[in-house]
Amino acid sequence: MNRRVVITGMGWVTPLGVGLEAAWRRLLAGDRGMAPTTIFDARTYPTQFAAEVKDFELKSFLGERYEDHKHASRNTGFALAAAEMAWQDAGLNGPLGVDPTMVGVYLGGGEGPIDFENFVAAAIAGWNPESRQLDTVKWAEVACERLDAVREFEQDPNRAAGHIAYRFNAHGPNFNTLTACAASTQALGEAAALIRHGDADAMISGGAHSMIHPLGVTGFNRLTALSTRNDSIESASRPFDRTRDGFVLGEGAGILILEEYENARRRGARIRGEILGYGTTADAFRVTDMHEEGRGPIAAMQGALDDAHVKPEEIDYISAHGTGTEENDKTESLAIQVVFGDHAWRVPISSIKSMLGHLIAGAGAVELITCVLAIRDGIVPPTINYQHPDPNCPLDYVPNQARKVPVRTALSNSFGFGGQNNTLIVRPCE
Amino acid sequence: MGASGCGLIERDRLEAAAIRDVLGERRAQVPVLSVKGGLGNNGAGSGAVDFIAAVLALYNTTIPPAINSAPIDPECGLKLVTGGPVDARIDVVLSAAYALGGGQNATLVVKRFHE
Fold it and tell me: 0.90 exceeded by the pTM?
C-alpha cells in the first residue's frame, strides 16, 4: 500500500510566541527569542542565555481538560498545547471520523526537567565531606521523602505521547523517538510511513523538548556545543557565519496533524501540504562527530528525493539543520553541494535556529511547519546574524532578510548528535 | 501466552483479565509464561528480553516457570507456569509488553518456523 499523506493541521510553541501566524510573522521579520536564562540561575555557566518560551500557561490551551494534564512536565505541556492548536487548525472540533485505533501519535521528544532542587538536597544530605563520597543510603532516605512521585513519573520521555493519546482519544500506534536533534523530523517521517502503509489513517506527530535545565546546559557546555557570546546574546546564534561558535539552546514544540489524503478530502479538510518524501540514515561513525564527508546527511537527502520522486533541481527551498556549530554547518553545506550539484548555488537555504535557537527534539517539526508556511506565502525566512562569509559555507543562506520567492517544493534537514540524519520533503497537495 | 507481568497487583489483574478475554474458552488450557520474577523488569529492554524468552520456549518446547508466583493470585485466574519448567509442544507464542506510564501497549506473535 502506498497512500498519500497530507498535513491538515499545525501548531507550535516557540521562543517567538505560540500562535502559528504571530510567530511566523516574527520569523519573517528576523526577530529573535534569546535572552538571559530565567528558568534557573545560570550566571556561573559559560552560557548564561537561552531562547525560552515566555509566559506559557498550559491551562489557557486546555480549559476544563487541564485537570487531566496538570502534572505534565514543561516539555509535555508544550506538546499538548501545540497539539491542541494543530487539532483546531485541522478543523477537528469533534472526532476525526475514523476508527480511533487508526489514529496514532508519533513524537520526537526527550526527558522532562528533573526535580533538581530536591535531587541536590538529597545529595547534600548524603555527602560525606571526610571521605568525599556520596553515602547513597542517606541520599535515598532524603530522596524517598522529598522527590515527588508524580513529578518523577512525568519526566519520562514517553509521557507526552501518552498525554496526547488521552486528550485526543488516539488509540492507535503510540511512539516516541529519542534521536536527539533529529527526533521530530524522524517522528514525522515514520508517522507518514504508518499512514502510507495503511497502519494508521491519521497521526498526531512532531516533537517537543526543553533542555534549558541545569543538567542540559552543563552537558552542552561541557561538549562546547553552545555559543558563549554572553555579551552579544541577540546575535549569538550565527549559522553558516565564519564567526559562529555554537548553538543557542531553545525550547518548545511543533505538532502536525497528518492524514491519509482520501480521508482528509472526504471530510472536507483544508490541506496545508503533502509529505512527499522521507530519508533516514545513520552516519555509522564516531558518535561524537559527524562523518567529515557528510555521508549520512548526503544519503538522507538523496533518500528523501528518491522517495519523493523529485529531482534536486525541483527543490525551491532548504530549511537547513544549520545549528551554528563549526562542524554541522560546514558538513551540511558540503552535503548539499554533493546532492544538489550546480543547483546548490541557486537554492535558498536558511536556518531559523538563528532566531529560535535550537529546540533539539522539537526543532525538526517547527522547521517543517516553517516550510509549509514558506510555500503558502511565497517567502522564505532569513538566516539572521550572518555577517562574515565562510569559505567552507559558500552557499546562499538568505542572509538577514526574508526573501520573496515562489516555493513549490521544500526540503527540511535534521541531524542528531549520535549520527542520525533525517530529511523530509513537502509540497502543496496537487 | 507470554505475559508482561510486572508484579504490581492491579496491573497484573488487569493484564490477566485481558488475557482471559483474548483466549476466551481456551483460557484454562493455554500456558502463560512470565520471566520478570527471575529477571526483574528491564525497563525499556524488557520487551526484547521477554520476547527472547518466548522464542527460546518455542524453540526448546520448554516453558520456564514464573518463580515466586505460586500460589497464583486467584483473581488472576490463569494457567501460569510455576514451580518448575514444563515441557510443551508449543507452536505459537504471543509476547506482550505494556508501558508503566504513557499507556503504550505492544504485542508480538512468534510462530514455529517451517520451511
Answer: yes
